[in-house]
Fold:
Amino acid sequence: MSDIETERPDEAPENGAPPDDASPETRLAEAEGRAEQHRADFLRAIAELENVRKRSAREVESARQYGIERFASSLLPVADTLALAQESAATADIATLAQGQEATLRLLFKAFESAGLTQLDPVGQPFDPAQHEAIAMQASAEHPPHTVLKVIQKGWLLNGRLLRPARVIVSSDPAIADNPPSGG
Structure:
């Protein structure tokens, strides 16, 4: 025998086989011990997975309930300003009311901006059916065909994703408007 084998006779050889001198009962006991350890590890893993599932469900529910909290907080000054305007409407002059409306609108747009809302105002831009909804066409010699002439209702993006398309009037070629195709 080599020196290594005599120093550690109770360890398995490198090929993983049990030592030759271990009795079947000893090997069975060792195998049962390993099996019990694997079972305990398995049960711990299942318990941890269940905890992660429950924690994730709580976080999703919390996000659903309170995810709008920051946006709602930024709208409170707008509500306060509108309430103040309503209280003073009977005694304020038109210029003061107009200034109040402008200030309130600025507060509202600031709240929208902080929430990731961006306004689409595509006047003068080419018509884009992915972001605009054409409600009418108007002949125009000053603008190239398929250019947004007028915005009827502004569109909105939420973090770059279309929330509402801009409703627009689009230019058409004046030659086509003067000579509509005949229905043969």
The helical segments are 3-7, 24-66, 69-88, 94-114, 174-178. The mean pLDDT is 87.
